[in-house]
Amino acid sequence: MKSMLLVLAAAGSMLVAGAANAQAGADLAKAKNCMGCHDVAAKKVGPAFKDVAAKYKGNKEAEAKLTTALKEGKGHPTKVAATDAELKTLVQYVLSTK
Ligand code: HEC
To answer: What is the pLDDT along the chain (98 residues), one digit of tens a residue?
Structure first.
């Protein structure tokens, strides 16, 4: 199951956009327990992904900033244990949820 998700994540990060990428992102967010603190549409422990996407709309730095935040735990309460490819998929997914 885990290797399946990794394959999905890798495939997803290679696509620029599209349904496969969104699905891989959603699956990965679940697998990485993001959804324990986040929801796509509602505020939980952390902000709704939809609100994050709205906040960073049109911001070209968003992907790099959020990737660093998650990777290093700067501006995010937890350090996220994920590969760079997984982080890319996660961040692109979050930013796509508007
Ligand atoms: C332990 C709870 C928790 C977990 C698990 C968690 N988050 Fe968060 N996240 C938060 C909180 C709280 C904030 C708000 C931080 C703030 O605004 O200071 C946040 C903020 C964010 C933001 C917005 C940062 C910004 O600059 O606006 C993103 C994107 C995000 N989380 C993504 C993720 C992803 C992706 C995962 C899974 C890999 C994840 N989070 C797992 C609690 C969590």
So the answer is: 666 655 555 555 554 456 777 899 999 999 999 999 999 999 999 999 999 999 999 999 999 999 999 999 999 999 999 999 999 999 999 999 98
Q: How far is the CA of 46 from the centre of ligand 1 (A)?
A: 5
- Residue closest via CA to ligand 1's atom 39 equals 34
- Let me know if 1 is exposed, middle or buried by CB neighbors in 10 A (0-12, 13-18, 19+): exposed
2-95, what's its fold?
A: Cytochrome Bc1 Complex; Chain D, domain 2 (1.10.760)
Domain ranges of the chain: 2-95
pTM for the model stands at 0.85
77 C-beta closer than 6 A to ligand 1: yes
Here the contacts of 55-60 (C-beta below 8 Å, separation 24 or greater) are 56/95, 57/98
Cβ of 69 closer than 6 Å to ligand 1, yes or no, is yes
